[in-house]
Amino acid sequence: MARSLPLVCVALTLSLLAAVPCSAQTNLTQTLLSLQTDSTYSTVATAIVAANLTEPIVSLSDSSGVTLLAPNNEAFNALGNATVSCLLAQPGLVLLSTVLRYHVIAGFYNSTAIVAAAPVSLPSVLGPDLNITVSGSTVQVNTVPVVAPDVIQAIPSAVVHGISSVLIPPGGLQAVQAYCASAPTTPTPVGASSGLLSGFNGLFALAMFAVCALQVLL
């Protein structure tokens, strides 16, 4: 039955398989899908998709493993809707991408590994180090508490830790303030972008699961 698929479907399947390895996509797609359907982390998941960081994170997941420090929705709310909307509306999303890459670490570091290694400085994908310490029973990243350690794990490819504040890279706050102060006054509404991107990511994930199943069946 699978062999009777129209040629266009086969071509689309092969192009998707060539673009993203199934092993990595399965693990990471589940992680990002869980974030986008979780009311606590929907904003960071939307931002990752908007900034076109899904594939780079997938590559890390498939090669070295990846650790994502995910600010919860309250953390983004603390930045203010105007600031978040401004970042989402910037052409090229350079500042948003910069901030998000500061939350990504190459390597699989679940809470057990972090507690065992702390205090430790780990380089972010952006470049600057993240200083990780343990205070009592709480892990802190640049003094920001990890409020939900190991909130999602896809061992040994990906792990997500929930944090209570958005981490700003060195010099990043000034850059964001300067840009948003001079940005156009009609930014893209966060809610509208979130809905569109959430739907797109859900469809993409379902497509990838179907593609991976086809790869097994064919």
UniProtKB/TrEMBL annotation:
InterPro entries recorded: Adhesion/Biosynth-related, FAS1_dom_sf, FAS1_domain
UniProt keyword Metal-binding, yes or no: no
SUPFAM superfamilies hit by this protein: FAS1 domain (SSF82153)
UniProt keyword annotation of Phosphoprotein present: no
Coiled coil stretches, renumbered: none
Domain of life where this protein originates: Eukaryota
Annotated FAS1 domain residues: 28-167
N-terminal signal peptide: 1-24
Pfam family of the protein (one): Fasciclin
Keywords for the protein's UniProt record, in alphabetical order: Membrane, Signal, Transmembrane, Transmembrane helix
Ranges annotated as spanning the membrane: 196-217
Protein name listed in UniProt: FAS1 domain-containing protein
Biological source species: Klebsormidium nitens
